[in-house]
Specification:
Elements (H helix, E strand, L loop, with lengths): L1 E5 L6 H14 L3 E5 L15 H19 L4 E5 L6 H13 L3 E2 L6 E3 L2 E6 L27 E5 L4 E5 L1 H5 L5 H6 L8 E5 L21 H10 L3 E3 L6 H5 L3 E4 L2 E4 L9 E6 L3 H4 L1 E4 L2
Parallel strand pairs: 1-2, 2-3, 3-4, 6-9, 9-10, 10-12
Antiparallel strand pairs: 1-13, 5-6, 7-8, 11-12, 13-14
């Protein structure tokens, strides 16, 4: 099966247009979007921007692509810039059959390949915190809080470091309970693995990826793992994939004006892997 993967489009029209061009040229059977597909929105009313984008731009775009490229499936996870209400909206569209929202709790299978998805990341300096958790159970809370979406009041509310992060299940604990699909299977995860070629930032002298995600890949050994989140890493390290045991882990990177994406065949990941940078 031929698939296309990209991440971190952040609602940017030029990137969606370039992705559209790539899909028409390559005609993959599956498009996977690795989180942070939408603009953040204003803290006072994030639904006015991110919510409207999901309903009025993103899902119509997905439906149009699926109509033009008959048979192409579209699956996704979310990321640290995405609000909880966007997950609720995508779950509704998943139930309607418009898109597949991947989860770590149960695999989705296409053409004999299973997929599980994981949207959470360790804490970041950004203020949307719905999909952030402590990486490991004994990690200290971050210095900076932010905001989360309150489903009861339908408004953002403050998320303070101690009161929000400490009681939550860590990435390591949550991933320990992830589904165990039969091989071949692919892990789609917004955060890249720690201490890899996929988790480096310019002017930062240490890896910034998830230790829990790396541990999960080392223990479970999926066919490949697909990541985003650290946009600059391929430019910093000069590599967009790394090997973790037998797993090919991939982060195509992203920019604000030129689409970064990968294409691969699930039957021959390393031999078919292509990194595309469009303009």
């Amino acid at each position: 099966m031929r698939l296309c993967f990209c991440s971190d489009l952040h609602g940017r029209a030029p990137l969606y247009s370039q992705l559209e061009r790539l899909l028409r040229a390559e005609r993959p059977e599956l498009l996977i979007l690795g989180g942070d597909m939408f603009p953040d929105g204003d803290l006072d009313d994030p639904r006015a921007v991110q919510g409207r984008f999901v309903h009025e731009r993103f899902i119509p775009w997905v439906r149009r692509m699926r109509t033009e490229l008959a048979g192409m499936q579209v699956s996704c996870i979310l990321g640290n810039h995405d609000w909880l209400f966007s997950k609720d909206y995508l779950a509704e569209y998943h139930n309607q059959g418009a898109i597949v929202l991947l989860t770590h709790r149960a695999p989705w299978v296409l053409d004999g390949v299973a997929f599980i998805g994981y949207s959470r990341t360790p804490p970041t300096p950004y203020w949307v915190k719905d999909f952030e958790r402590l990486d490991m159970p004994d990690d200290p809370p971050p210095e900076m809080g932010g905001a989360i979406w309150d489903r009861v009041t339908q408004q953002p509310r403050p998320a303070e470091p101690e009161t929000y992060f400490v009681p939550q299940t860590s990435l390591q604990s949550e991933l320990a309970g992830a589904a165990r699909p039969a091989p071949p299977w692919i892990f789609v995860c917004h955060a890249p693995p720690h201490a890899s070629m996929l988790d480096r930032l310019p002017h930062v002298d240490h890896p910034v990826g998830s230790r829990a995600v790396r541990e999960f890949i080392e223990q479970r050994q999926p066919l490949c793992s697909l990541h985003g989140h650290i946009h600059e890493s391929p430019t910093v390290t000069g590599a967009y994939y790394d090997l973790i045991g037998a797993t090919t882990s991939i982060n195509p990177g992203q920019s604000s004006s030129r689409l970064h994406a990968v294409l691969l065949e699930t039957g021959n990941v390393k031999g078919s892997l292509q990194h595309r940078v469009l303009a």
